[in-house]
């Protein structure tokens, strides 16, 4: 098992390199890069895309356009070439793309993500500040989904075809059909002072007076703020996991070793949790990385935006809009690294649940 883990860890490096390479190449063709953003700000424009749409078409702007018609930047109207060259040097665009890429890779190997183009803050500091929010959403949502889905899925498998199985399946399918962002808005309207009850806070992860609260008060305040975002993040994963658990248990219950165990007089609980559980849970555990990463990637952006949570997903989205490439690539690197590490942890959980699994023998 040790050799297998080492091989998996060795694959992390080329995988991250591929992620960075693909996204680096794409950014070379995306209009409105950081230089264009800086030019738009220097000219008093709030958005670089106004230049693409033909903004600032006053008489002075037209004269300036004629003086800078040979510039490769659409928004460079009347700005001296020295200023453009200084911007390119500041953002590192005075060097060839290949050199910029390999320099970025070398820095990332040392976890040096550079500094934000427009915030003048270290990207590492920003990620450390925002990451706990996204991790909190991902972990709590995944754990709650598993805590509900596994017992419910087992119950549905045991009661397969009963009235309980029918109405719970209807509720699960309805929950799965509701988009996460729509459910989040519904929770806000119902329970955050939208039109009905003001039970939970509208935004943020903690209250303004959080630091002055006692330890118990901090715990209550934290749970109070995290309840609605976690519920909104959990709904999709909860539905999928429940049906996956049920079907996995149904497949195992019909096998001969279960009938043999029952024929020996073992109780139903002993059969389910002593024999069926270990085999049925393998496929459920295999889905853990997908569930966690699904919530962490997809849910973090939507849920953080709706509930005004200052997390990594929202940071990456705002950086992509502003073309703040150090933050964009830094968040991509962290997202990819977490996903790969969680995949390795999933394999370790396989062995923990069923020690008979030997990844090294299977690969051999």
UniProtKB/TrEMBL annotation:
Protein name: Inner membrane ABC transporter permease protein YejB
Classification via Gene3D superfamilies: MetI-like (1.10.3720.10)
Similarity comment: Belongs to the binding-protein-dependent transport system permease family.
Domain ABC transmembrane type-1: 131-350
Transmembrane segments: 131-152, 173-197, 222-245, 280-307, 327-353
Source domain of life: Bacteria
Pfam families: BPD_transp_1 (PF00528)
Main location: membrane
Gene from which this protein is expressed: yejB
Keyword terms of this UniProt record: Cell inner membrane, Cell membrane, Membrane, Transmembrane, Transmembrane helix, Transport
GO annotation, cellular component aspect: plasma membrane
Keyword set includes Cell wall biogenesis/degradation: no
Mode of membrane association: Multi-pass membrane protein
InterPro entries in the cross-refs: MetI-like (IPR000515), MetI-like_sf (IPR035906)
Localization terms from the record: Cell inner membrane; Cell membrane
A biological-process GO annotation: microcin transport
